Amino acid sequence: MNTTHFSWLATLIIPLYICYAKVSTLPDDRLSSQTELLGAATRKPVMGILEASVIEALTRGSKFGVLTTGVAWVAPLTKAILELSIVSKEAFAGVVATGLGVLDFHTSSGELGKDDAVENNVRIGAQTLVAKGCNVIVLGCAGMEGMEDAVKAGIYTSKEVRVVDGVRAGVEIIAKKLHDS
């Protein structure tokens, strides 16, 4: 891999919610995540927003769930999260899909979350995760960035439920790593 175009970067954030598919790395045939491979190739700290959001969720509450876009993402996201060594089955309530596509979160004018149907699906997903015992809800797609208010609008409980944006969590974790180094 030619990584010279990454040389000016201090760090990399992978802005895709799922980039944890394991791939074979020859010659030892060890399975590595794509973020591990990119980190090794660039010799830069690499943080995926899935990993960042899970780390943030675990620091904010005792049980988290992921609210994502389409139903097709439920199984791969569940698998990827459970493969992270930091996640226990007790702390993870699962993944709930809104049934929406990533582009549904943005109107034709580019405004975020102005569609009543989109906000309704997000609220219903949030209610489902709270019913599963979540006190942290993770936005499971970079395209859902900015949907925190719609998620909070769907929470009808007296207990505090926090919302984690994976993009924001990734930036904050990487900034802390850079500051500490």
Automatic annotation (TrEMBL):
<comment type="similarity">
    <text>Belongs to the HyuE racemase family.</text>
</comment>
<keyword id="KW-0732">Signal</keyword>
<dbReference type="Pfam" id="PF01177">
    <property type="entry name" value="Asp_Glu_race"/>
</dbReference>
<dbReference type="GO" id="GO:0047661">
    <property type="term" value="F:amino-acid racemase activity"/>
</dbReference>
<dbReference type="InterPro" id="IPR053714">
    <property type="entry name" value="Iso_Racemase_Enz_sf"/>
</dbReference>
<dbReference type="InterPro" id="IPR015942">
    <property type="entry name" value="Asp/Glu/hydantoin_racemase"/>
</dbReference>
<dbReference type="InterPro" id="IPR052186">
    <property type="entry name" value="Hydantoin_racemase-like"/>
</dbReference>
<feature type="signal peptide">
    <location>
        <begin position="1"/>
        <end position="21"/>
    </location>
</feature>
<protein>
    <recommendedName>
        <fullName>Asp/Glu/hydantoin racemase</fullName>
    </recommendedName>
</protein>
